[in-house]
Design goal:
The complex is a heterodimer.
Chain A (H helix, E strand, L loop, with lengths): L2 E10 L2 E7 L2 E2 L4 E6 L5 H8 L7 E6 L2 E2 H10 L2 E4 L11 H6 L14 H13 L15 H15 L3 E4 L8 H17 L3 E5 L3 H7 L2 E5 L5 E5 H4 L2 H8 L3 E6 L2 E6 L1
Parallel strand pairs in A: 4-9, 4-10, 7-8, 8-9
Antiparallel strand pairs in A: 1-2, 1-3, 1-5, 5-6, 10-11, 12-13
Helix pairs in contact in A: 4-5
Chain B lengths: L3 H24 L7 H8 L5 H35 L12 H14 L4 H24 L6 H25 L2 H12 L9 H14 L3 H7 L3 H6 L4 H23 L5 H13 L3 H23 L10 H19 L6
The chains are: A alpha/beta, B mainly alpha.
Chain lengths: 254, 329
């Protein structure tokens, strides 16, 4: 079991997003977290990443609590893609991607040629190889997002926790990214937990889904069982209709 | 990002520059002494009067200046990362304010140099503890809370300083003003300050790559394997003690801690593994040059060195800023 929670309660400022949540994510699985704005998706993801303490319960990464693993060992197992963010200081695209190598380097190490090769390869995966020497502060929103993903790829964790990985991306990069993680799930096998806003893409690229209703109730299971027009209509508070084409399910506002 | 080799080359060049500045400080003054003579004196030869001037007057003062400049630049670089704010300087968290209150109090009641130093250090420590305690509260700190607490404590100290200035007897005012502007003429043995500089640098360097990540945000750093809570406390402690040591030694010399890390960043990029030691060397050199000028330009009168660090720093900084690649810095 790569990631598991027991009796997890997560909330912010008196609001509870989930209570008594017991999740189990196995290697190679991809879990989509769906819910309305402010339903606590990012907060839950930060708790799963060990960056925030839960109100109750525990999160186990590869069977151990974050506090027992320590930051460095945790960073070699799980990576976290933050939502947005700003740079206080300038740095090049390559330097940013190389920060992903940090947990693999000893205290006095400098990044080796091998690390640079890994970083370049990660940049190439997201189509940024040509911008390696650019200052990050001259990048567009979508390019920044892809750089953050490249940094995560350079980190090469077993578990990817992705907070809105498709934000700012145009359609072709959205598909390229989801296909990249689907491929990683088969090859490595990498495991993903991602916050998504498009249930059709979740049904297509993820194996499991967690619906957060925002009032503390949640529902999770295999995509085929959890992602239905009834449950999504309740989740988003708007009637949705399921359309099936070539075996692919889409959900349209009715 | 510099390679290790390039970083060492840059540091070697800066070390050469520092040596040049120190030699200059030994040669220049009311009694000019040639380079060969200075070298001879340091090796124990030459006339007694020359030896007195070089070894007892100029060398301790130059070394104290170097140590204070290095401490301030290091503290500035660390605080800019801790607060993720390129405008942070060693004084932004109220440490110099606390030291100022202590030092001025000592001057008002008529204590000697040792008393001034002791009270200044005590004031700096008190300000540091107050800011740390208040900013911490429940649930840890955020950068903005730490910054705000520091700014407010500094403002309170500023008010106390002004109060003491307005109540102080005329004959003490000049000493108080010099202390506030920063002055190296009263420094004694530089060995303690040099030792502290070395200790602070050695404490910070092993964490330089983690500081690179901290500059990108606390959560990002934590997710990449940095124990952020521990690192932040350590950085705060080292930066505060470095500032307190410098301020106790030489008063509130402005500008070095803000501008030197910036200059180094503009010239070499933002890798803390190079930035921290390079700032120490550049900050030390700048203060040595400024102090040499401070005691020679209008000799026999001496200027407070803080005025000169600003007068040198501002044009150099503006030049580099104008020349910099857009987006850098």
């Amino acid at each position: 079991m790569l990631l598991s929670t027991r009796g997890l309660r997560v909330g912010v400022a008196g609001r509870t997003f989930c209570r008594d949540l017991t999740l189990e994510v196995r290697a190679g699985e991809r879990l989509a977290i769906l819910g309305r704005n402010g339903a606590g998706k990012s907060t839950l993801l930060a708790v799963l990443a060990g960056l925030r303490k839960p109100e109750a319960g525990e999160v186990l990464l590869a069977g151990a609590a974050y506090s027992r693993l320590g930051a460095r060992a945790s960073a070699r197992i799980r990576g976290w893609l933050p939502q947005g963010g700003s740079d206080a200081f300038s740095s090049s695209v390559l330097e940013s991607a190389l920060t992903g190598r940090h947990p693999h380097l000893a205290r006095w190490d400098w990044e080796s040629d091998e690390d640079a090769r890994i970083a370049y390869q990660a940049l190439a995966e997201v189509g940024l190889a040509g911008l390696a020497q650019r200052d990050t502060r001259t990048l567009s929103g979508g390019e920044r997002q892809r750089l953050a993903i490249a940094t995560l790829l350079a980190q090469a964790p077993r578990l990817y926790l992705l907070d809105e990985p498709l934000a700012h991306l145009d359609l072709n990069h959205q598909m390229a990214l989801l296909e990249l993680f689907a491929r990683l799930a088969l090859d490595q096998p990498a495991t993903c937990v991602m916050v998504l806003h498009e249930p059709g893409l979740a049904a297509r690229f993820c194996t499991h889904a967690l619906l957060m209703f925002g009032d503390g109730t949640t529902r999770h299971g295999r995509c085929g069982e959890v992602i239905t027009s009834e449950s999504l209509s309740a989740l988003y508070g708007y009637p949705l209709r399921e359309i099936v084409e070539d075996g692919q399910r889409w959900f349209m506002p009715a | 990002m510099p390679t290790r080799r390039r970083a060492l080359l840059i540091l070697a060049a800066l070390a050469g520059l520092a040596q040049l500045c120190l030699s200059l400080a030994l040669m220049v003054g009311s009694v000019p002494i040639g380079p060969i003579e200075v070298l001879g004196t340091l090796l124990g030869q030459g006339a007694d009067t020359t030896r007195e001037v070089v070894c007892s007057l100029r060398l301790p003062r130059a070394l104290a200046g170097f140590a204070c400049g290095g401490l301030l630049a290091l503290a500035g670089a660390l605080l800019q990362v801790l607060l993720r704010n390129p405008l942070a300087d060693p004084y932004v968290l109220g440490i110099s304010g606390g030291a100022g209150v202590g030092a001025l109090l000592a001057i008002v009641v008529g204590l000697g140099a040792a008393g001034i130093n002791a009270l200044a250090f005590f004031g700096a420590l008190a300000a540091m503890l107050v800011v740390f305690g208040l900013a911490h509260g429940e649930g840890g700190w955020t950068q903005s809370r730490l910054l705000l607490t520091g700014v407010i404590v500094a403002a309170g100290c500023g008010a106390l300083v002004t109060l003491m200035l307005s109540l102080a007897p005329e004959d003490r005012l000049r000493g108080m003003l010099f202390w506030l502007m920063g002055d190296l003429s009263q420094t004694g043995d530089p060995r303690l300050a040099l030792l502290l500089l070395l200790a602070a640098l050695l404490a910070a360097l092993p964490f330089a790559r983690e500081l690179n990540l901290l500059a990108r945000g606390a959560d990002v750093a934590q997710a990449l394997g940095v124990e952020v809570r521990v690192l932040r406390r350590g950085v705060y402690l080292v930066a505060s003690l470095a500032t307190a040591a410098a301020v106790t030694h030489a008063g509130a010399i402005g500008f070095v801690g803000l501008i030197v890390p910036h200059l180094v960043r503009l010239a070499t990029g933002n890798d803390q593994r190079l930035l921290l030691p390079a700032s120490v060397l550049a900050g030390g050199s700048l203060l040595v040059v400024a102090d040499t000028l401070a005691r020679t330009v209008v000799a026999p009168q001496q200027l407070p060195v803080g005025v000169l660090t600003a007068l040198i720093g501002v044009p150099v900084f503006l030049f580099l800023l104008g020349r910099a690649v857009p987006g850098r810095g």
